[in-house]
Design brief:
3 helices; 73% helix; 0% strand
Amino acid sequence: MENEHLYKKAQQKVAAKKGFFYHFLAYALIIGMLYFIICYTAQGPLLPVVVVGLSWGIGLGIHYLKTFGTEQLDFLGFDSDWEEQELQKEVEKLERIRHLKERLGNEKRLLEEMDSESNTESLELKKIVKKPLDKDKN
C-alpha cells in the first residue's frame, strides 16, 4: 500500500520534470524562430523578441523552481540544506529562550524564598550615640 503511494508520487515528480523539459524546448524553439523571422526575414526591431523572451522566461523560471526547487542551484550560491539549517537555528533559539525562562523562574523562586526567610528574622537596630573625642587628654 505504501509502496504504491511512493511509486505514484515518484511518477508525478518524473512527469513534472518531463513537462518542464518540454516547456523549455518549446521556449527555445519559439524564441529562436521569432528571432530568425524578425531579424532575417522582416528585418524589424528586436524589442518584441526580447519582451516575449523575458516574460516567457520568467514563467519558465517559476516552472523550474516549482519542479526542482532550489536543490539544483548550489552553483549559484543557493544552499540545498538552507531550510534544514534555518529550522535548526530556530529550534536552538527557542531552546535558549526556554532555558532562560526556566532560569528566570528559578531565580524568582529563590528570591521569594530569601524574602520570606528575611521577613521571619528581624534585625535589631542599635542607636548610635555621638561622643566627642578628647584630643587634649593625651
